[in-house]
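Each record in this resource describes a single protein on a pair of labelled lines. The shape at a given residue is found from the number at the same position. The record below illustrates this layout:

***
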Amino acid sequence: MNTRFTTQRIYTRSNGMRNTFGNFVCLYCHNFVSAETAISGVHNRNHCPYCLSSRHLDLFEAGDRLSACKARMKPVALTLKHSIRKYARPGDGELMLVHVCEECGKVSINRIAADDVNEQVLGVLRASGALESGLRRVLAENGITPLAMADWPAVMRRLFGLN
């Protein structure tokens, strides 16, 4: 027996809404996380600043919160967001976290927030050197180049402004 749906729900987002999800408790470390833009420096907060774990919330674009998965997304690497500036130097770009969903395997990149624990960010960089080949292939298929320990100076410059 086939059930036919005669109506289709259409999801829209208000362009005026900035904090579309609000404060939350981390699925992994159970710490309270504030989604206040003034604290985190990002508009669509979806990862914990203490353990950097995320939750699979977005389906089509950042902040849409339409994913049905809702599983934990593990931080696996750091990458640089490609710059859209015409005359950007190679290696320029914003430092981003790479997350992989533990349930469905979706890969996403998220901005480093102002209140993220820097030691955790550097720990992700150290761990990214031991990524398995299958995960490296998936990241490459998604156009993501993980940073390695050789990129330590670039990461330090972006986190602390050190040369």
Summary: The chain has four helices and six strands. The two ends are 66 Å apart (CA to CA). Helices lie at 37-40, 118-127, 133-141, 152-160.
